Amino acid sequence: MEALPYLDDRQASEGTQFKFKLNADGEPHARNTDLMRPAAFAEMLDHVEAELVRMGGEIYGGAIGLNPYQKGSERACDKCQYQGICRFDPWVNSFRPLR
Fold this sequence. Notes:
- This protein is an alpha+beta fold.
- It is 27% helix and 7% strand.
- The chain contains two helices and three strands.
- The two termini are 32 Å apart.
- The mean pLDDT is 82.
């Protein structure tokens, strides 16, 4: 199954949000070096689905521990609306680093 029509349904030959270019016959242009082949895209979707099922199972099973991230100087707590009732203490607990 070709995924491009689901990502950009304008039937354009060149992407503005997603970087792609199509030939006149609708096939990807040879310069599309960063396009993911359908099999690799399907594999990625399967992996994402498995991760969502796993995380949902953990949450449903009661694993709802605090695990905020930090990326550089940005922390999840900076944007959180629940700081007043949250039990995460940055003096005691560590942030989960993101690269």
